[in-house]
Design goal:
Bound molecules: iron/sulfur cluster
Number of domains: 1
Mean pLDDT: 84
Number of strands: 8
Order of helices and strands: HHEHEEEEHEEHHE
Helix content: 25-40%
Radius of gyration: 16 Å
Strand order of the largest sheet: 1-3-2
Largest sheet: 3 strands, antiparallel
Strand content: 15-25%
Structural class: alpha+beta
Number of helices: 6
Low-confidence stretches: none
Shape: globular
């Protein structure tokens, strides 16, 4: 079985931390970052998603690199306290035909996500614990994902519908 560690360990570009959209910070994430003194305005910013203000991790000045990326060690400097958004990546939740779906970005050319079901279930438990289910509209950016997939910047695979959420549809 291919493991997550093996895939990311062999990734040469680590675009998730150096060239992706800003990770959102939910309440539970915020307490984790507060506990290590990394929740100030030098690290976090407010962004607006669908008219709602939410916290997100900043980028380093004049770059697309996450403020928490340690360039010398080539790793996240807050790894143990990284937001749920980062723990989930390259998995993501998007609206497809009005329903929340798990997708996975093909960010590593060797990606093979056949093993992902157990991981999705652990993410769904994590979402219950840290309140992501209560704010799915924000997390999923409540915009229909434009298909076909080929039209997207980063290719992705649709895995399955998200379980246990309080659907608004
Ligand atoms: S999540 Fe994707 S982009 Fe990030 S390190 Fe792993 S394989 Fe690379
Ligand atoms: S918080 Fe850490 S894991 Fe998340 S994007 Fe920044 S460097 Fe990467």
């Amino acid at each position: 079985m291919i493991s997550f560690t093996k895939l990311c360990g062999s990734c040469q570009h680590q675009g998730c931390c150096t060239n992706s959209s800003v990770p959102l910070v939910f309440l539970h994430d915020l307490s984790g970052l507060k506990s290590i003194g990394k929740s100030g305005s030098e690290y976090l910013q407010e962004v607006t998603i669908k008219n709602k203000k939410v916290l997100a991790v900043k980028k380093k000045n004049n770059s697309n690199v996450c403020v928490f990326w340690d360039e010398s060690k080539k790793m996240c400097s807050v790894y143990e306290n990284r937001p749920f958004d980062c723990r989930a990546y390259p998995f993501d939740i998007r609206l497809i035909h009005g329903k929340y779906h798990w997708i996975v970005y093909s960010c590593n050319p060797d990606s093979d996500w056949q093993w992902s079901e157990n991981y999705l279930q652990s993410l769904e438990k994590d979402m219950e614990l840290n309140g992501v289910y209560d704010d799915m509209e924000t997390f999923a950016n409540n915009t229909e994902l434009i298909l076909p997939q080929e039209s997207q910047k980063t290719p992705f695979i649709i895995l399955r519908e998200v379980k246990n959420h309080k659907s608004k549809f």
